[in-house]
Write a structure and sequence with these properties.
By secondary structure, the chain is an alpha/beta fold. It has 26 helices and 21 strands. It has an eight-stranded mixed beta sheet with strand order 8-21-20-19-9-16-18-17, sandwiched between helices. A hairpin with a 3-residue loop joins strand 12 (373-378) and strand 13. Helix 7 (204-234) runs antiparallel to helix 8 (239-253) and helix 8 packs antiparallel against helix 21.
Length: 822
């Protein structure tokens, strides 16, 4: 179809591409290969490991360099997995990149937004996100700039008005000419400013691990220096022994694989979701969705399919008005599924004669989700289509019974009315005469009942939020089995903020909700302490999607909703949600288990180092022995444990759970190894034999703790994941035994221990399990009696500080917009 504007020619486009006037994003879709390699290779702890390797090599302690292969393997695994993920996710993003309608050589083409060039003419309709700064050259649209400014008002844009990239079209249709592209556009400038300050809100796991890694990083250098000085200068130990003690202590304090494990696990999780046709815009959404306790869903596109059909037209006046309905629908843009359904239903028949009164259109009013109507003002009369109670107002009582007849069956009902006033985009105030009721339906998804049953079983509250009539929404909610669907409220009838807040917290189904109210509902739920997820597919969902803790959009929905969300269901299948939640729980639960394994080593090593310094004793093990225990009680099992399905409900905060799980094991390890050193000295055992005993005792404690983490919930009904856990435990035990017996020289294991040494080890091994139980009870008592409230305060304070940083970033963005306006 030939367009009213010529647009750029192929020669014009080539010329602009040659000089770089292309709408390239200022943010790469993912990290480059060089950035991935550097982030895995050039780290603070790798630098510390390099220094330790050099120092150990200088004192010819070659056997103690056994930690190097583990470090190299960590680096290689991290790089390879991230590169694999980059390939999968980049391909997914290319296939699902945002597109725009562009006029070139009088033809309308669909191009990716990064192929737009300066001076291109684009066509914008309801639901589109504006890809680059532009100016309206024909038509008019209502734009929402809330994603840029935070101000939710719809702004009418007429010929000559500026359109800012990043904002989105609510309704209407226009042609616009691109005025700025790439980093010169408004949204790109905001992005660059945000980068200059600080970008990216991190997940709780990564934020917690960063805090822990910073503390460990600050401790290892001074403790290492003091440890060497105490051994060499005060105990007059040889240089090699002093370096070995210092290196063993430092290696034990470094969480070398913890951060890598978390990063790789999140990357692998994103890859698994990509194979399920789920695209992530934000990696932290995996974890956030797993912690969600309240899920807000829209009716259309989530509970029901997004395809609507007109099932009945109930005429309230003479059918002579049919031509008025046909012409009104023909004039309106199909920027909503409702209007698309009406366009399919109400078409001109061959014999229809178009009346003169419908030839001259004065104004077209696209659908306003705020006022719930759309309309057309012809030269002689005006007609509107919208929510019966909002269009008819005082006269709604005349049709209430007929409307309720359909809404109680779950149908959507619109009124077609003649309006005795002028259309100005605001709430209707003049009289409206009802001419017909338009009844529409869309099918309930077959998988919806099972999906909501899953969330009910998982303790997740459902909130159904819709712009439809409350009776329609409530009936649909009841049909799919949503708990407390009878607790419903019409949000258009609430007048005070207190009423609104109470209604949100006490009800399940909400009807006649405006976009601003959807946003407010999400905010009230978050302020009440809930972790809120929001699903949606329309323009009216965008603001709520942006403010939710986790936002999920349907790919078949409005482009603005897809771009505003953190997660996109590419096949628009809501039944994917349980598997997405399960993936998030796998990540969080398994990282808690794996993280506790790492922290046992770190907490023990710090405490043992401080005891060695305070009591002027030699650190009981050497680096190769620490590496041996770390490999089979932490490294190997933690990596595989992190990949096993685990759908347990998540309770508490990550760092608190990990610390409280690791502390009793570290305490038991400290007591047993301390006792081994004491008894070894009493029995006058050599330092080499004591070091071997300490290695064996640590292995016993580590494997006992691993047995607790890998035990099945029901051994009579073992699941696949339980068999995998058992296999991980057996491999770790066998690996430890093989290294102790077959690689004695490499790990400095003494083979001739003697009777006294075996008696000491036997006593420590027997005491391991009961001591772990005692330490667990002691830790629980200490936490509940003294430390719990202080740890809670610390965690809460950290979360508040993180939120303040994000709020500051948001204010800076808004301030930049206001300065530009002024």
């Amino acid at each position: 179809m030939k367009q009213p504007f010529m647009g750029l020619t192929a020669k014009d486009v080539r010329e602009r591409k040659r000089v770089g006037l292309v709408n390239k994003s200022v943010e790469a879709p993912s990290r480059t290969v060089g950035e991935i390699v550097r982030s895995n290779l050039l780290t603070y702890f790798n630098f510390v490991f390099l220094i330790l390797a050099v120092v150990l090599a200088l004192v010819h302690s070659w056997k103690d360099l056994t930690f190097l292969p583990i470090i190299v393997a960590n680096i290689v695994i991290g790089i390879v997995q991230e590169l694999r993920a980059k390939q999968v996710l980049d391909n997914l993003k290319v296939l699902n990149a945002p597109v725009a309608r562009v006029v070139r050589d009088y033809k309308l083409e669909t191009l990716k937004v990064d192929e737009i060039v300066l001076d291109d003419i684009i066509v914008l309709r309801g639901g589109d996100q504006i890809p680059a700064d532009a100016v309206v050259i024909s038509g008019e649209v209502a734009a929402n700039e809330a994603l840029l400014t935070g101000e939710a008002d719809e702004i009418m844009k007429h010929e000559g008005d500026e359109l800012l990239s990043g904002s989105f079209i609510v309704y209407g249709e226009c042609y616009a000419k691109i005025t700025k592209v790439g980093e010169d556009s408004y949204a790109a400038q905001l992005t660059l400013k945000a980068k200059a300050i600080k970008t990216g809100e991190q997940s709780e796991i990564i934020r917690s691990l960063n805090s822990f890694v910073k503390v460990a990083g600050l401790m290892i250098i001074p403790i290492g220096i003091i440890m060497f000085a105490e051994q060499f200068f005060f105990q007059s130990a040889p240089v090699q022994t002093s370096v070995q003690a210092m290196a063993a202590a430092v290696i034990g304090m470094i969480p070398e694989g913890l951060f890598l494990l978390a990063s790789v696990t999140l990357v692998l999780s994103a890859m698994r979701l990509a194979r399920q046709k789920v695209m992530l815009h934000d990696m932290k959404s995996i974890e956030t969705l797993a912690r969600v306790d309240t899920l807000c869903v829209d009716k259309t596109g989530t509970i029901t399919s997004d395809k609507m059909n007109v099932v009945e037209t109930k005429w309230l006046a003479d059918e002579k008005w049919r031509m008025a309905l046909v012409e009104t629908v023909a004039a309106l843009s199909a920027d909503t599924e409702t209007m698309a359904a009406m366009k399919r239903e109400y078409k001109r028949n061959r014999g229809d004669m178009r009346g003169d009164e419908y030839k001259n259109i004065v104004k077209i009013q696209g659908f306003s989700s705020r006022y719930k109507y759309s309309g057309v003002q012809f030269k002689g009369s005006s007609f509107v289509i919208g929510a019966p109670e909002l269009v008819l107002r005082d006269e709604y009582s005349k049709v209430r019974a007929q409307v309720s007849k359909y809404t109680r069956q779950g149908a959507r009902v619109l009124v077609f009315a003649r309006y005795y006033g002028k259309l100005d985009g605001e709430a209707l105030t003049a009289r409206a005469e009802a001419l017909a009721l338009v009844v529409l339906e869309n099918e309930i998804r077959e998988t919806a009942p099972a999906t909501f049953k899953y969330f009910e079983d998982q303790g997740v509250d459902i909130k159904v939020i819709s712009g439809d009539d409350i009776e329609t929404v409530a009936e649909i909610a009841r049909k799919v089995g949503i708990k407390n669907a009878d607790k419903c409220v019409d949000m258009s009838k609430l007048t005070s903020q207190r009423e609104f807040q109470k209604a949100v917290l006490e009800n399940t189904v909400f009807g006649r909700v405006t976009p601003a109210q959807k946003r407010t509902i999400v905010k009230i739920l978050k302020d009440a302490g809930h972790t809120v997820a929001m699903t949606g597919d329309g323009v009216n969902d965008v603001l709520a999607l942006k403010d939710a803790d986790c936002s999920v959009a349907m790919a078949s929905g409005a482009q603005a909703a897809v771009q505003a969300s953190q997660m996109v269901l590419l096949d628009s299948d809501f039944s994917r949600m349980p598997s997405v939640v399960a993936e998030g729980r796998r990540v969080v639960n398994n990282l808690e288990n794996s993280g506790s394994l790492f922290l046992v080593k770190n907490l023990f090593s710090v405490a043992m180092s401080l005891l060695a310094i305070c009591f002027a004793i030699t650190y009981p093990m050497i680096p190769s022995q620490v590496s041996l225990v770390t490999l089979w009680t932490i490294g190997v099992p933690s990596f595989f444990l992190a990949q096993i399905p685990n759908e347990k409900l998540i309770k508490g905060k990550f760092i608190r759970n990990v610390l409280f799980a690791a502390a009793p094991v570290a305490l038991a390890n400290l007591i047993l190894i301390g006792a081994t050193v004491v008894f070894g000295n009493i029995c006058e055992l050599s330092q080499e034999v004591i070091a071997t005993l300490c290695t064996m005792v640590w292995a016993a404690v580590g494997l006992t703790n691993l047995a607790r983490l890998t035990k099945a919930e029901d051994y009579k009904n073992m699941k696949a994941s339980d068999w995998w856990k058992l296999a991980i435990f057996i491999v770790s035990v066998v690996g430890m035994i093989v290294c102790l017996l077959g690689f004695k020289w490499w790990f400095s294991i003494e083979s001739d221990l003697g009777l006294h040494a075996w008696i000491i080890f036997g006593g420590m091994a027997v005491a391991t399990y009961p001591l772990l139980m005692i330490c667990r009870e002691i830790t629980r008592w200490v936490v509940n009696s003294f430390l719990g409230k202080y740890v809670n305060r610390w965690v809460t304070r950290r979360e508040k500080n993180a939120k303040k940083v994000q709020a500051k970033l948001s204010r800076n963005k808004k301030r930049g917009r206001r300065i530009k306006r002024s």
